[in-house]
Specification:
Blueprint (H helix, E strand, L loop, with lengths): L2 E7 L5 E2 L15 E7 L27 E2 L4 H7 L3 E2 L3 E6 L5 H13 L5 E5 L4 H11 L7 E5 L3 H11 L3 E5 L17 H15 L7 E6 L12 H5 L2 E6 L6 E9 L7 E7 L2 E4 L3 H4 L13 E8 L2 E13 L7 E3 L4 H15 L6 E7 L11 H13 L7 E3 L2 E2 L5 E2 L4 H11 L3 E4 L13 E4 L3 H9 L2
Length: about 450
């Protein structure tokens, strides 16, 4: 009986007949693991059934044929619902709510008469039942659960139960009998198990939706080979610390919807609850007499959705040679750039002042459109003068102090008008073609003009 020894990188799947301390492909150290293959037991790749060729225009699209849940934020991130013949992978840090969210999705679809198979290689049936009792008021009988690490057994149950949705928790814990020399979580087992699930999902005679849970590495990436992300249709990530209430569901890949779409949830003892109107959630409710210095409002875009966001600044005296610049929502280099612009173009000195920036809910400021709001919140704090609670700032600020145009301005202004704001400051010549009756659009050229107009200086 002939045996063949090779080495496979656990990080990227690179294969070699010799051992390397450092993977030549991904440069990770000590990731090459020895695999012994029984050449007699190696099976050839079976040729798939030949399918007739079709013209592109004659193919019936299934993009609109979606399974729509009652969880609005989940539907939004998925592009309007779960496509019936799609395969999705969801990853997050431990304790972020992966299993909780998908168990809620499973029971929700079961209530709509869909059949769901929930296969777990990490938890026992009793553990899954205890979680379900905690977060679900009434468990639907259309949800089947199996605790097993054998993908072969799961595939047999798929034929027996005939589910519409298959949930695998997690893909790195399952194995196939055809690869006895590869352990669970290895590149070979992970990819082969995923390939089997893709065949089930893409079966033209019986399409099924498949959602995989993927483990996350300490680098906040899906554990295993990068090819797994290329294989699936949609990649979802849950962001948020286990001790915090707010969770965000982000898509980094979606063949059936917009990439970068984000949905928001808040975690409770009863599971993850959808935040259907995040603009209200991310704003502090205050009346005109309770406005605080250092608070400004802007509109950011997460995917296709505009979100009204409150930015808070705190400027304090520094008693050290190097004042602090602290921000969890903004890169430190960008914060230093904006502070330098204020010093040079607005004539306000910060050499002896600490500057701290944060956003309500901890949302990251990824767009340049929020720069004017950050600048105005800092100036409001240093002057100790509150800004009006019905005024919004949407513009980039150049090194020259000039305001720059931002994309999707009309969409942002429509959201402001819907929420009842009265005034918005933008850059000139922004190409605005919007008719609103309740909001005043102020187009100014420089930062000094904005400061003069707002503070009447």
């Amino acid at each position: 009986m002939k045996k063949k020894t090779k080495y496979i990188c656990e990080n990227c799947g690179y294969e070699s007949i010799g051992y390397y301390g450092k993977c030549p492909e991904c440069s990770s150290w000590n990731s090459m693991k020895e695999v012994v293959e029984d050449k007699k037991g190696v099976k050839g790749v079976a040729r798939s059934e030949k399918r007739p060729i079709k013209r592109l225009k004659d193919i019936v699209s299934t993009n609109s044929d979606r399974i729509v849940t009652s969880i609005n934020e989940f539907n939004r991130v998925m592009g309007g619902g779960i496509v019936r013949d799609s395969i999705t992978i969801l990853t997050a840090k431990p304790g972020a709510g992966k299993s909780t969210l998908l168990l809620q999705v499973a029971n929700d679809l079961a209530n709509m008469d869909y059949r769901v198979l929930y296969a777990s290689g990490e938890e026992s049936e009793s553990q899954i039942k205890n979680r379900a009792d905690r977060i679900i008021d009434k468990i639907n009988p259309n949800v089947w659960v199996i605790s097993d690490n054998s993908m072969d057994n799961v595939l047999e149950l798929v034929e027996e139960i005939d589910p519409d949705l298959i949930i695998i928790d997690s893909i790195q814990t399952f194995t196939l009998e055809d690869f006895p020399n590869s352990r669970a979580g290895s590149p070979t087992q992970t990819m082969e198990c995923a390939n089997q699930l893709v065949k089930i999902a893409k079966n033209p005679n019986r399409p099924r939706a498949v959602i995989l849970i993927g483990q996350m590495t300490k680098e906040d990436e899906i554990a295993g080979v990068r090819a797994l992300e290329h294989l699936v249709d949609t990649v979802l990530i849950i962001e948020g610390e286990s001790g915090e209430e707010l969770r965000s569901l982000l898509t980094t890949k979606n063949r059936y919807g917009s990439t970068g779409e984000m949905g928001f949830f808040y975690m409770t003892d009863k599971g993850m609850n959808s935040i259907d109107n995040p603009s209200e959630y991310f704003m502090t409710e205050r009346d005109a007499n309770r406005m605080m210095p250092g608070s400004s409002i802007t509109v950011v875009k997460e995917g296709t959705r505009p979100i009204i966001l409150e930015i808070e600044s705190l400027v304090s005296n520094s008693f050290t040679p190097y004042p602090s610049r602290i921000s969890e929502c903004l890169k430190r280099e960008q914060l230093n750039t904006l502070v330098s612009i204020i010093e040079q173009r607005a004539g306000i000195s910060f050499y002896d002042k600490n500057v701290v920036i944060k956003t309500t809910g901890g949302i990251k400021l990824k767009e340049q459109a929020s720069n004017l709001a950050v600048v105005m919140s800092i100036i409001s704090s240093v002057k100790n003068i509150p800004l009006s609670n019905d005024t919004v700032f949407i513009a980039d600020v150049g090194l020259t102090g000039e305001l720059k145009r931002v994309p999707s301005l009309e969409t942002r202004i429509r959201e402001l008008d819907r929420m009842g704001f009265k005034r918005v400051y933008v850059a000139p010549n922004s190409g605005i073609d919007i008719k609103t009756t309740n909001i005043e659009i102020v187009q100014l050229r420089t930062l000094r003009e904005v400061i003069h107009n707002v503070f009447r200086e």
